[in-house]
Amino acid sequence: MQLSLTRRCVCEVIGTYCLVLIGCGAMVVDNQTGLLTHVGVATVWGLIVMTMIYSIGDLSGAHMNPAVSIAFASVGRFPVVDAAAYVVAQCVGALLAAGSLGIVFGVDDVKLGATMASLPTGSAWAVEFMMTTILMWVVLGVSTGAKEKSITAGLAVGATIAMEAFVAGPLTKASMNPARSLGPAVMSSHYNLLWLYLTAPIVGAIAGGCLYRFVRGKDELDTEEGAMTKKISAVVLFAFLIGACGSTSMAGEGNSLLRPNDRVAIIGGTFVERMQPRDELEAALQTQRPDWKLSIRNLGWSGDTVSAIARKRFDTVEAGRARRLADIDAANPTVALIWYGQSEAGQYAENSERIQADLMGLVDDLKQRQTRVILLTPVAMPGDRRPNYKAGLEAFEQMLRDVARAQSLALVELQWQPSDEQLTEDRMLPNEVGYRQLATLLANALLEEPTQEDATGQSNQTTANHSTDSPERELLLEAIARKNEFFFHRYRPQNETYLFLFRKHEQGNNAVEIEQFEPIIQKADQAIWDAAANQ
């Protein structure tokens, strides 16, 4: 006897709740401890799917996925009204699960296991589409109806989820489930690329269902109502494909390395730190994309290298790396720009293996935090007279290319040669004019904005945009300076020793004020967005 639709929907709420709670919970635990590893997380996803199929398969069919319910309806295997009710129930279960994780771990996209892509948008959409197509093929192959529960179904579907998570997890987090992506996105207010995770699985599941029914041919389930449903689903599939292609082209971010609402951390040494306080790179990014509401955090540290040696202060190099990770966690970025090389170039030949290992370690740490990584090549400074500087710089750049290729990372190669008018007196760093032009070129590369160059290779756009400082641009730079100052005191307070270290007994009670910088910084970001919108 089949349960009522209401009871079956309750089962779908429970099943999806457990799915998202355990699956995303595994991602959270691995992010915090590193103990599960990617293989462990993928295995957990497969096991929870298998377990819930055994638990509620004979009650509701254990869809736990709007794409599956919609695909079942599209091939005439499930009533449309029931599918609509299932979709609502599944989304409710995912939202409740994400809310539960938020209560325990805090509400942000990383801690809630939100889906993020390390691929370009079009490639990420294709991965989710293909993975869900395969999943739906397997689901239909092992099921004979919505009430079916068998050991074959549980093992086959669970194994499929695990295997696809092994492959696609590092690329798109292997969602294949709109509800699984919707829950963490809503609870963390992280809607970047959510349209991708809503459309690609649905289209993929419908495609998988249609392909399976085409191969299998007609059977006793091909009623007149089912035939009509399949015709409608074909139209829906076509509309989704057109809409997805249109969204990719209209979003203005298909080829961009940055995305709307990104939190960008710029990690480097003296070259990066001296970009403050009136950060020309942030001004260029915010001006070109005022509607994207980017949050920029400068994590440059004077004298630092990829080994984090300057951050160790009076401690070990390992403490320096730990300090850099703490800085990164304070910034909580979705994407990190790694910009080292100027300091390392002078002695790169002697330390090449260690430098590459340290860079790979930093990349691994960022990936564990679900942070996209963009590598930037260093800029040659004519004032650096170290004997092996130029050769070391070229070798460092080649190492970046090798790492980017091996790790599938984005690499921005900056072929900028500053003139004497764009350098400080010792010609070791860009001056304000130099940083301004470099910032514009880098912003164009990150946002895929074309530039026009004159015969000397210098960007005319820079001159056109910034030949004079308008009052509006001055307000933007002042807002950026205020935000950078607030964040400086948040992540690297000048009185750190007295608040957190061996002299905290003197003023340690004031340490609680550090966390109070967060709403101040967020308000400063809003002021930047408002100023950028007025440009």
From TrEMBL:
Protein's cellular compartments: Membrane
What InterPro entries does this protein map onto?
Answer: Aquaporin-like (IPR023271), Aquaporin_transptr (IPR034294), MIP (IPR000425), MIP_CS (IPR022357), SGNH_hydro (IPR013830), SGNH_hydro_sf (IPR036514)
| Residue ranges the record marks as coiled coil | none
What topology does the record note for this protein and the membrane?
Answer: Multi-pass membrane protein
Q: Which domain of life is it from?
A: Bacteria
Keyword Transferase listed? The answer is: no
Protein name from the UniProt record: Major intrinsic protein
Source organism per UniProt: Rhodopirellula europaea 6C
